[in-house]
Amino acid sequence: MPRRSQRPACPATQAPVMARAAGARLRIGPIACDGRGLCAELLPELITLDDWGYPIITRAAVPGRLLADARETVRACPLLALRLEHRI
Amino acid sequence: MRAASASWCEAGPGGPPPPGPMPPERLPRLLPAGPAAGPVSLSAHLARYGPPPSARLDQRRRKALTEEVGRAGLTGRGGAAFPTARKLAAVAAGRAAVVVANGTEGEPASAKDKVLMARSPHLVLDGAVLAAGLTGAGKAVIVVHRSVREIIGDAVAERRRARLDHVRIQVVTAADRFVAGEARAVVHWVERGIPAPTATPRLHERGLGGAPTLVQNVETLAHLALIARYGAAWFRSAGTPAEPGSMLVTVLGAVRQPCVLEIAIGTPVRRILDLAGGPSGPAQALLLGGYCGSWTDAGPAVSLPFSADGLAPLGAGPGAGLVAVLPEDACGIRETARVVRYLASQSAGQCGPCRFGLPAVAGQVERLADGRTCDLRLLRRWLGQVDGRGACHHPDGAVRLVRSALTVFAAELRQHAEGWCRGGRSVLPVPPRRPR
């Protein structure tokens, strides 16, 4: 359809995506989390455990060099309690 | 009556002609003025306040009335003080909304919502029906403490006989639990019989049965019913410019007449104590806001205005309107230990830091209370690890209480370490522990 072909190509759409990724933050769903602790094993730079074994997550944005590790950690959570939130 | 309520909306903020009787110029606004008696009947209610504001509103009048509520500066009276107009607008933006009047009042020391519903049930119902009109909701669910279930049920039947309302009113007995009053927990309770908060981020988008849901404290709804009748300027004639209106407070502990009062926000704390018959002896400290509130030294607190701005210098706030007076012969650390143990037992147990952290904190505070050795550094570490880490603010509130106790009762902490305690009199009510 003509409308589809008029959409802007990749370079134009990629810019905002990258801007969002730069502000990505890890968030935990405290009800879903059961303290399995995988996240702190995989990403000790940003996640530590409290005295009862539940993850304490840094509030700061995930630095670019750790973004891939953060995504991997989110995928590894067996309870899907961890997510990466993108804010502009 | 429809014409009267319509006319002021068009008049705007300038000062609408009040429908029916004159608006109450003095407090109390919400509670009947006379001595304590049974609930105000529908006819007496209508004689005092005039006909209820019409709940059948078209889009334009909905918007005008919501703006009037915004000008009034009404905020939630359940403790969080969120601007009511913003909540109304957010829910009204969705489709097929539901209104939930929250009269759970799970806090054992607080009685203001129970007293309001027991004495002025129709004002609360007016507000719930009006909120339904403002948000386009077809149903209002009134969640009430079991002690006033019958009164509210009778009031709803009275209105039904009078064919007063155009929305369906459902009355649900609240769960008897501290966290059951949290907005998402109320919705969870009504929907599935589970009195625990959920992970739902935004009730105004997706709440009861997936519908946009307005959860509002019953006192807030009562104020709403009066703002719709008398306008924002009238509402603002009490209170402070930043925190307008009146609020209900529960005064207990070492006062001559523990009671529920309606005060203008910003009333000096000393005046509140006087209205409750005055302190029954020298006051040592005050617990302000609720069990998730803050201890303050009695001396500096009594001269401050009871408002968020007024109490901020002491790190306290009005919360849900609790003022508890700790007498000289009671021990603040023991009181805190009892309350924190209770709060730990009331955790929904869903979030690890609350489930395991609060009992750990309670254990340390009990050690302090008993004069046993306690690692204060460990206690502070745990407070830091619990704070802000639940799905709701239950753990944060317990942390606030303990932190304030460690500051206000610092001298007692040293005395306890030396084996000396002020006394064992307890003033804060804590229900007996139930097996879980």
Summarize the structure.
Chain A has 88 residues and is an alpha+beta fold. Chain A is built from 4 helices and 4 strands. Chain B starts with a helix and ends in a 19-residue tail after the last helix.
Give keywords.
heterodimer, A: 88 residues, two-stranded antiparallel sheet, 4 helices, B: alpha/beta, 5-stranded mixed β-sheet, 4-stranded parallel β-sheet, 18 helices, disordered N terminus
Determine the oligomeric state from the structure: heterodimer
Helix proportion range of chain B:
40-55%
DSSP strand count of chain A: 4
Would you count the extended β strands of chain B for me?
A: 9
User: What is the H/E order of chain A?
Assistant: HHEHEEHE
Describe the structure.
The complex is a heterodimer of chains A (88) and B (436). Chain A has helices at 2-5, 10-22, 38-42, 67-76; strands at 25-28, 47-49, 55-57, 82-85. Chain A has 88 residues and is of the alpha+beta class. In chain A, strand 2 (47-49) and strand 3 (55-57) form a beta hairpin. Chain A is globular. The two termini of chain A are 32 Å apart. The relative contact order of chain A is 0.26. Chain B has 436 residues and is an alpha/beta fold. Helices cover 43% and strands 12% of the residues of chain B. Chain B contains 18 helices and 9 strands. In chain B, helix 6 (121-135) crosses helix 9 (218-230). Chain B is globular, with a radius of gyration of 22 Å. Chain B starts with a helix and ends in a 19-residue tail after the last helix. Chains A and B meet through loops of A and helix 15 and helix 16 of B.
